[in-house]
Amino acid sequence: HNTMGRNCEQCKQFFYREPSLEFSDPNVCQPCNCDPGGSLDEGICDSYTDEASDLVSGRCHCKANVEGRRCDTCKNGYWNFDEYNPDGCQPCTCNTLGTINNEGCNQVTGECTCKRYVVGRDCNQCLPEYYDLSDSQDGCKPCECDLGGAFDNNCDVINGQCRCRPHLTGRSCSTPDQSFFVAQIDHLTLEAEAANCSSNCQVEIREPYRDGQETTWTGPGFMLARPGSDLEFIVDNIKTSMEYDIVIRYEPKIAGDWRQVEVTIERPSPVDPNGPCANARPQDDYKPVSLSSDARYIAIPPTCLEAGKTYKIKLMFKPDPPQPSSPTASILVDSIVLLPSLESIPFFVGSAIADNRKKEYMHYQCGTAFFTVIKGPVSDICKKYHYSIGYYVYGGAFSCSCDPTGSLSSLCDPMGGRCQCKPNVVGRRCDRCAPGTYGFGPEGCKACDCNSVGALDNFCDVSSGQCKCQAQTYGRACDQCQPGSWNYPKCQRCQCNGHADTCNSATGACDSCRDFTVGHNCDRCIEGYYGDPSLAGDIPCRPCPCPGTLESGHSYADHCELDPQSQDVVCECDEGYAGSRCDVCADNYYGNPEQVGGSCNLCNCSNNMDISRPGNCDPHTGKCLQCLFNTEGFNCERCKENYFGDAINQLCTECVCSILGTNNSAGPCDGITGQCPCLPNVIGAECDACKENHWKIASGMGCEACDCDPNGSYSDQCNQYDGQCQCKSGFGGRQCNQCQTNHWGDPNVECKPCECNPEGSATLQCNRDNGSCICLQGIGGYNCDVCAR
């Protein structure tokens, strides 16, 4: 029973004990049955179970990369079971990022089980048009390159960068470079006012609405067409050969349909036989249409146009207008637009996905928005398609090229490329003034402001601002009369007597009078001239001879007149001049006006004259002749003799000189200070006092010295009138060098009293030397106390 051991208690090699059977069971030892290709030790398995020894009954000993009870299966992540392989199986080479749940590969073929967007035997590549192999559920991300912005839907497998058309950026090529833009679908707009017109057409320029209301036209305005008008549009900027829908934008002027309008396309030959226009037929280039008065546009079936060629599209208005009898039958044509046809754009045709895109585009009416001028809001879905179409049709993005003078920034709207314009500036590039404005410059443009009465309309020259004027009107804004006229708007000729060409437009006052004339009508001579310049007088203005002309520099009058009686010139002399020719000085003036360079000046008498009196100074020398206020001199500039003070300020005062102390032979008093000339030893401004220690001014000879005795007097000063010195006690006499009054003798020795009889003496003072008295008549004696003999 495949056992061994002394007691048959073990299974033989290549057999194992079945744990579910008793050892006494004849089937307890089962064969190992190990796969020789995948097992080690020639297929020996564990004969019994021993957890301590890590033995499991019946377990084969597998090669390194093999598993299973029989060692007949490659481990997960391995394949190609091979008995000659020492490891049994070889490792799978699956990329773990691209393999579903990292399940490894097929154990027979070695192929890996890839995620949704992963390919390759080893699941190490993204599907075409996918990128960024990662541990995400699907393994890779779709490129999603912009339908028109990228050349195709293939992108870099690492970063997903699509291959962009020129001047586009972003991973998906959906964004224009900075300062670039994508052209709108109606980029190919041809303005009717720029078309060639055979006859009977008229350009109508429209001024933008001032209230910000959106305009219903593109460009400057419209072309007014009448029966028989032919408009020819030149198309020379086709970028992509394909079919284009032709849209005519217009505004009817009268009710009813304009039934006979023929649209023809003149194409150059030959057509590229291998291009998209190879099947174009001549009959496809003739398209009759009818323009309804209830519509503002009409879309014509597509026409195939080739890139780089020049076409002519003609609109012919047959003489069958809605109202044939109306002499004013007309229609305003704004523009024609070439819209790319969806049938010519690859990402709208050729697959179910493309068909779905086309249905979505049509559902949201993404194309019809460009039939009219006013487009309204655009959905995000349509915007995305518009960008892609623009990228594809025009080969990438265009430079903004914003005009640096007219725009606020070098950046523009990425859709359509409209730059941010300064005030009154228009155009995609902000490169021109709006209709009704002029003066394109750093501040924008200025409004024409043409006068509503004097101008034909409100449009002006874009450079000078000159409006189109009615007859007889003038000026930039046509708000003036023609030169030589005035009183706008009722203009009349200026009346300037032939001495001026123009006059003030409001008052009629003549401008820049010629021939030395002046006045509202140039009817007077200018200052310094005389005559009668009116047409009636016809006496030309001549320089005033006063005595010479103003130009000579020898003239003393600004005005003169012609005496109508004597026909002599009478000058109106300047102040200080007199005579009919102003050649003498006026009263109270002096000078030599008769000489060239001479002049007359006001008499300069230091304000010491009476201006109302004539003859105040010599008319030639200017010497003052009638000085007032006790003044004298050439200009009355000093006080006259025996007066003193400030002659200039009329403050001359008569000198007061004492007749006793003044030396009359020495001249008058000082004219400034009033000091009189004094006799010897006399002082004072008036010579009315003796100098110190002198007296006897009444002598008329000056003053004498007091000579007071120093011993007998208190001071050297005596009385100025009688010369009496101030004597000490016991002294007397004028000089205090004698005894005191009524005494006699030598005061330095002894003084004795006089003993004169009062009744017989003439004075009580006796002779100071001998004491004898001075007696009255008939009285005698030493003391006058006896009768005379």
Automatic annotation (TrEMBL):
Principal location class: secreted
Domain Laminin IV type B, chain residue ranges per copy: 182-394
InterPro entries membership: EGF, Laminin/Netrin_ECM, Laminin_IV_B, LE_dom, LMN_ATRN_NET-like_EGF
Disulphides: C62-C71, C114-C123, C126-C140, C400-C412, C402-C419, C421-C430, C448-C460, C450-C467, C469-C478, C513-C522, C627-C636, C678-C687, C706-C718, C708-C725, C727-C736, C754-C766, C756-C773, C775-C784
Protein name stated in the entry: Laminin EGF-like domain-containing protein
GO CC terms, sorted: cell junction; laminin complex
Keywords: Basement membrane, Cell adhesion, Coiled coil, Disulfide bond, Extracellular matrix, Glycoprotein, Laminin EGF-like domain, Repeat, Secreted, Signal
Organism, as annotated: Homalodisca liturata
GO BP, sorted A to Z: animal organ morphogenesis; axon guidance; basement membrane assembly; cell migration; substrate adhesion-dependent cell spreading; tissue development
Location relative to the cell: Secreted, Extracellular space, Extracellular matrix, Basement membrane
Domain Laminin EGF-like residues, every copy: 32-91, 92-142, 400-447, 448-493, 494-543, 603-654, 655-705, 706-753, 754-789
